[in-house]
Design brief:
heterodimer, A: mainly alpha, 71% helix, 0% strand, B: mainly alpha
Chain lengths: 52, 299
Amino acid sequence: MKTNKNRSTIGKLTIISFVFFLSLFLFGVNVKEPKRVLEQAWNICLDCIGIG
Amino acid sequence: MESIRKLIQVIATLLSNGYFLFPQTRNIYQGPMKVLCSPGLNCYSCPASTTYCPIGAIQQLLLGVRFSFETGSYFFSSYVVGSIGLIATLTGRLSCGWLCPFGLIQELLHKLPFGKKREVYQPLRYVKYFMLIAFVFLFPLLLTNDWGMGKPWFCKYVCPAGTLEAGLPMLLLQPDLRATLGYLFYNKLFWMIFFLVWSVSTSRPFCKTTCPLGAFYGFFNKFSLFKLDLIESRCTDCGNCAKVCPMGIQFNKAIGSSECIMCMRCLREGCEFGAIHLTCGNVSLTANRRIAGKKQVTL
């Protein structure tokens, strides 16, 4: 059976995970990584599709 | 419920591959939407793709991380890992069951009435974790050439979605590329055919054994905001949930399993006792549902 303590621990993990990945995401935005991702995604990656 | 899920899968596939001008331009989409993360495995070199593939993007950023640090850019895939981490924290592996285009293709192939339907050999399920850790993170980062550049190992040597969605269409759109075909392409073509043929006899074999994105999302199934849970007092251990599960798991014996893609077939089609329910945080969203047109079941 799930205890309230278990549920609380799981809830804390969800919040910690959310804050961690949100921080990572915002750090990426801050260093302008989305621009780099965009540049990469605009080009056909021949290696990626098994050509070249 | 299953028809609604199929409809959502089709809509998600069309949205993440919504650039229909590619036969005219003979090139991939190069608009601003490609800054958005595809929640499923969807090659961003696919001519119709409107979003970026997180697995491809992570490898591309890690293989050039030394150059990036030398130039003071600090691109180590934090934006991409942050994006899929947020998706996973909120919904676990739900994207695999509802939004992934390659998952949809495998499901459709599995409906073909050929041969005996089989389950995968259990230890093969661990290969996807090796793919995630080694082929997506470590190899692109550590195995570098003389100039300090790595390779996108998973995309280059394995990804069947890339061959199906990008490699073959690009060869049709740009015939000049055909002159460059070699071992690499035939290797990838082999893996694509292998997984597509395997999908006819086995439900979602690529998701079960090889998909690094599914492996990543799966880590969060136990504590994601939306998740499936069991009301133990209602469970009779009848095993009906296992019979309908496309991932071959018995829910009551594997609550929060990293294999669960939250397609909810166990909840809607399998369990007759209302023991499986969808929760958001600790709040049940489906525990008071009607079961097979019978009585109202309440907690």
